[in-house]
Amino acid sequence: MNQLTQTGDKQTPEATQPLNENSTLKVLLDTLRRLTRQPLGLLGLILVCSVIFSALFAGVIAPYDPVALDILNRLQPPSAEHWLGTDQLGRDTFSRVLYGGQIALQVALSSIALALGFGLILGLLAGFGPRWLDNIILTLFDVVRSFPTIIFALAVVTLTGPSIGTIVLVVVVTSIPIYGRVVRTQTQALAQQEFILAERAMNASMPRILFRHMLPNVIGQLLILASMDIPIVITIEAGLSFLGLGIQPPTPSWGSIINDGYSFIRNTPWPIIAGGLPLIITTLGFTFLGESLRDIFDPKLRKDV
Amino acid sequence: MAINTIQKGLRLSRRTLLMAGTVMGLNMMVPFSMAASDEVLQSRSYVDITSLDPANYLNAVDEDVMGAIYSKLIYFKPGNKWEWELQAAESIEQVDATHIKFKLKEGIQFSNGFGEMTAQDVKFSFERAAFGENPAAAADWGGALEEVEVTGKYTGVIVLKKPYQPLWNLALSYAAGNIISQKAYESVGEFTNSPPASSGPYIVKEWRPKQKVILERNPDYYGEPSAYKEIHINQIDDEKTAEIAFESGNLDVTRISMSSVQSYRETPPDNSQLQVFPSLFYVWLGINFENPKLQDPRVRQAIQYAVDVPSILQASYFGEAEASTGIIAPGLLGHRAQSLIAPEADIAKAKALLAEAGVSNLELSLDVLNKATNVTTAQIIQALLSQIGIKVNINQHEAGSFWTLGSEKAGERWKDIELILNRYSMVPDPYYATVNFITSQKGKWNWERFSNEEFDQLNEQAQAELDLEKRGAMYQRMQDLMEQSGSYRFITHEAEPLAIRDNVSAGLRPDGRPLYRHFKPAN
User: Fold this and answer.
1) How far is CA B156 from each of CA A236, B13, B142, B148, rounded to the nearest angstrom?
2) Residue B33: enclosing H or E segment and its boundaries?
């Protein structure tokens, strides 16, 4: 059993010791092995790797410039020249889908990383800090969560104008409470554990307790949660771009590709299919992967424990 | 439990129950699929009504409804020519440049027992609209009304401060010319979207905000009863949604998108036809006259020359719209036969102008409403301007945000406007278009902040000019001035494609806008 997955009940002070390189590799290989044993996990891994690969190498794979207009060849069906046809401005839809993946992952990964970082810090402080600080942080979380994400996004975009930065800001602000609450709950449970009480009895500093002992015990669960949130964030970005309030043209986004497709659906169904398919693949891929990772890491769900 | 009891009591099997449910469900759908009846007309508006008070109207849909529930002295005739006909007036005559005598028809009744329409109601309605605080209604009267003199129960004289030519095609025949009952108004004190009294063939039965307005036959109407028992004006913002509603039989008449014109023409939905009308809308690329980046006229002109209008018409309007020469549409007084700058781009000249101005690495924002046609046009402009080295960043806005961009009352965003893709509506008097671009409209509707003394003077003089030829020439000159300023690249007047059910005889203005009182079932 790897140290990161131990719950508070089974935790020992030794379990929080830093992992050396060999054990990290061992954990990774073990996780990969378990993942590939599960059909859905394997499928999720393949889908996620495909999306990441195509986004990373969009510049190499894409046969055309995604913003180059060719009005005379607009709304063409799939052909040998244009695998997914062309949009209303004659742009190659396949190339736009590939570059749209870059935007989707860029927004998802950066905003989730930031939200996770802030959520972690605030959650640790709320869970382990004084009661009054817990109350303040929880109130802030509740205030933020009371706004539906899209409505909040619409308000922010109206005030600041649409951009990638705005989308990231909206996702970070609305996601921090999700991670923060999970960390807070975990931290409060861990705070009553013997190894933490022992550290406190030895006058260990708060940063040491939080970052050396608490953090390794909550980060695993948080990462799984984050991987399952990636498709949600991608959908938010696509939704805002669909409404014209996200990524601005001519930069391709899956949402704006779907919007273009919707506007010209009577002329050709291909842009809407081309924009929708990667969203489905990505959502399924990250969901399968996240659920499989949860099954592997959560001892309560593991059949071999 | 309850379902089981019912099943037992009625001796129903699960399968029978499911079948019964299906049949009931299908029955519930019948009223929608049979929308096109002789009793009820299902129409569509792109926006909700704002006010059914003629003195406080804001949009064209308000007038669509008001035109059915009120009466005016004169009214646009349905057909393909811009002509008006007498409505509440038995006669109307221009005695001299500032006096118009009218006589009302006798026996025009207001609904809900508010009695007969009199010249006093005309005076009350016109003066309230002309002297009120609503800029739309007041602008329709152009500050020209002195008073309405009541000379008898049914007779009166409209007295103008100055000759005012838009009187006929704007003030009297459009929204601010609707006559309401003074007695009814004073009985409620405040006008809502359920008017206390109507004099048209329809009355407002119900207004469901953001959903629909239901008009029903006015039992007190003095003329021939309305052809339909009810007219439902459904608010459907999105044209694609409206097309689906039309194809599924839920609508009898709707505007469709330009991208669907070809398919409707080739294979129209069952029992329907496509009619394309010349629109009065005007679309243009606005270039901020006062923005520091654009103060050199050569930079503005370079942008004008770089925009290739035929490419926009091809991609955004599917070749179904013509290039415009200005803001006044063909067929109207003041229309220009051609613009000063040809619709086709002249990239070499645009580059030369930029070089002459010593401008390079220019980066500009282009604000645009988030509708498919507008965004497509914006992207073409973006690509075209990149050819002369101008980087354009497109900012899409939803309607609420877009329509307050240039308003000084709505904050400071007007200062950030650089390029803007805009589209205004129009009535058949050129004054209605030019008045938006006078200096005093800066920060209201003049978002390019264009200012030209000659333009302002001509706008004032043209209102009063009785010689139509001279008046037309003035408006042509005004469009020349707009174009020469470099602040405008005129694009198109679009077109108004309507899908109409075969069993509907639609009463429409020449630009395709509905005159609901003239709609009737087709034989």
Assistant:
1) 62, 76, 20, 7
2) helix B14-33
Residue found under tokens 């600080």: A133
Backbone phi, psi, residue B111, to 5°: -70, 170
Which one of A248, A258, A259, A268 makes the best mutation probe of the B interface by having the most chain B beta carbons within 10 Å?
A248
Q: Which of B259, B376, B395 sits opposite A248 (nearest CB)?
A: B395
Neighbours of B113 (CB within 10 A): 10
pLDDT higher than threshold 70 for residue A7:
no
**What is the pLDDT at residue A302?**
55
Q: Is the peptide bond before B196 cis (omega within 30 degrees of 0)?
A: no
Burial label for B10, CB within 10 Å (0-12, 13-18, 19+), is: exposed
**How would you label B365-388 residue by residue, b for 16+ Cβ within 10 Å and e otherwise?**
bbbbbbbbbbbbbbbbbbbbbeeb
Q: From CA B256, how far away is CA B263, in angstroms rounded?
A: 11
Model confidence pLDDT, tens digit, residues A39-67: 999 999 999 999 999 999 999 999 999 99
* Residues in CB range of A38: below 8 A, 6 or more apart: A292, A295
A194 confidence band (pLDDT: 50, 70, 90): confident
Backbone torsions φ then ψ of B253, nearest 5 degrees: -150, 135
CA angle B255, B261, B265 (to 5 degrees): 115
Three-class SS state of B36: coil
User: Under DSSP, is residue B56 helix (H, G, I), strand (E, B) or coil?
Assistant: coil
Q: Return the number of other C-beta atoms located less than 10 Å from residue A154's C-beta.
A: 18
Contact between A242 and A259 under an 8 Å Cβ cutoff? The reply is yes
Beta strands in B161-298 (DSSP E): 178-179, 202-208, 212-217, 230-235, 253-255, 272-277, 282-287
Among chain A, residues having any CB pair with chain B shorter than 8 Å are 67, 69, 71, 74, 88-89, 154, 158, 161-162, 243-245, 248-250, 259-260, 262-267
Burial of A131 from C-beta contacts in 10 A (0-12 / 13-18 / 19+): exposed
The confidence score (pLDDT) of residue A17 equals 45
- Separation in Å, CA B323 to CA B156, B260, B308, B494: 45, 20, 10, 8
Percent of chain B as helix, strand, coil, to the nearest 5: 35, 25, 40
Terminal alpha carbon distance of chain A? 9
Whether A144 and A115 have beta carbons less than 8 Å apart is answered as: no
**Mean local confidence (pLDDT), A93-99:** 96
ipTM over 0.90: no
Q: Which residue of B has its CA nearest to A249?
A: B394
Q: For each of the domains in chain A, give its residue range(s) and CATH number, in order of start.
A: 37-70+84-297 (1.10.3720.10)
pLDDT at site B338: 96
pLDDT at residue A304 tops 80: no
- DSSP per-residue letters across A16-34: GSPPPHHHHHHHHHHHHHH
Q: What is the DSSP letter of B415?
A: G
Q: Please identify which residue in the block is written with the tokens 């200096």.
A: B439
Q: Which residues contact B339 (CB under 8 A, 6 or more apart)?
A: B324, B325, B326, B479, B483, B490
> Are residues A252 and A97 in contact, defined by beta-carbon separation less than 8 angstroms?
yes
A245–B398 CB contact, under 8 Å: yes
* Rounded alpha-carbon distances, angstroms, from residue B169 to A3, A171, B141, B175, B217: 83, 52, 11, 11, 28
What is the radius of gyration, based on Cα positions, of chain A?
22
E strand or H helix that includes residue A194: helix A194-201
Low-confidence ranges of chain B (pLDDT < 70): 1-37
